[in-house]
Amino acid sequence: MSESGNLDNPVEAKISEKDVSSAVAVAGHPLHAMSVHFPIALVIATLGADVFYWWSADPFWLRAGLWSAGFAFATGVGAGLVGTVELLLVPGIRSRVASWAHAVAAMMLLSVAGLNWGLRLHMPDAVLPHGLLLSLLAAGLTGLAGWHGGKLIFHHGIGLMVTPRG
Ligand code: HEM
């Protein structure tokens, strides 16, 4: 379902006319939507590793958390770069407030994810409690960024490929 908004409002009517098709897509599939699953899954995996480390004190979970935090950050930066290209290049995306709300939430997430990885690299003893708390914050911000990203797709119809039923 796409959000029609208040088309009597001249500003919203003008925005609704702008193109929202993805500028970075492979065979019609937006690359950003394909890549965001990696940071989402890895941020949650880091939280899981921290909880298991807290519970078992097994250093295996410390190493697992270090790697998943690093890849959460790296894949998040990759997805964020593609998202930023979409945001800046596509007129119907950059003119929507919802796109900027998503970008701000995503940048907060990437900052926390980077800090979480750096903490594990340089101060592994601080994983309990600081790493665990950062993982909790990152998981909350992932929910916020992901929810706003989903709004772009399901409410604003950005990047959708709708074909007529034959
Ligand atoms: C500055 C960074 C980012 C910008 C500017 C950005 C921008 C966008 C844009 C324009 C869309 C609409 C779909 C498209 O055009 O491809 C989108 C969708 C989405 N974004 Fe981001 N994004 C950023 C980072 C992230 C990150 C780090 C995550 C991971 C939590 C994320 C999660 C999502 C999700 C879940 C969707 C909906 C995709 C779907 O349901 O298939 N974004 N984003």
Low-confidence stretches: none
Q: Work out the helicity level.
A: over 70%
How are the strands of the biggest sheet laid out side by side? 1-2
Mean of all residue-level pLDDT scores? 93
How would you characterize the overall build of this protein?
By secondary structure, the chain is mainly alpha-helical. It has one domain (25-154). The chain is 71% helix and 2% strand. It is built from 7 helices and 2 strands, in the order αββαααααα. The protein has a two-stranded antiparallel ribbon. A hairpin with a 2-residue loop joins strand 1 (25-26) and strand 2. Helix 6 (97-122) runs antiparallel to helix 7 (130-154). The two termini are 19 Å apart. Bound molecules: protoporphyrin IX containing FE. Protoporphyrin IX containing FE binds at residues 22, 30, 32-33, 36, 39-40, 76, 79-80, 83-84, 86-87, 93, 99, 102-103, 106-107, 109-110, 142, 145-146, 149-150, 152-153, 158-159. Protoporphyrin IX containing FE (HEM) is lined by residues 22, 30, 32-33, 36, 39-40, 76, 79-80, 83-84, 86-87, 93, 99, 102-103, 106-107, 109-110, 142, 145-146, 149-150, 152-153, 158-159.
Give a short synopsis of this structure.
This protein has seven helices and two strands; from the N terminus they run αββαααααα.
Walk me through the topology.
Elements lengths: L9 H7 L8 E2 L2 E2 H5 L1 H20 L2 H31 L1 H4 L2 H26 L7 H25 L12
Antiparallel strand pairs: 1-2
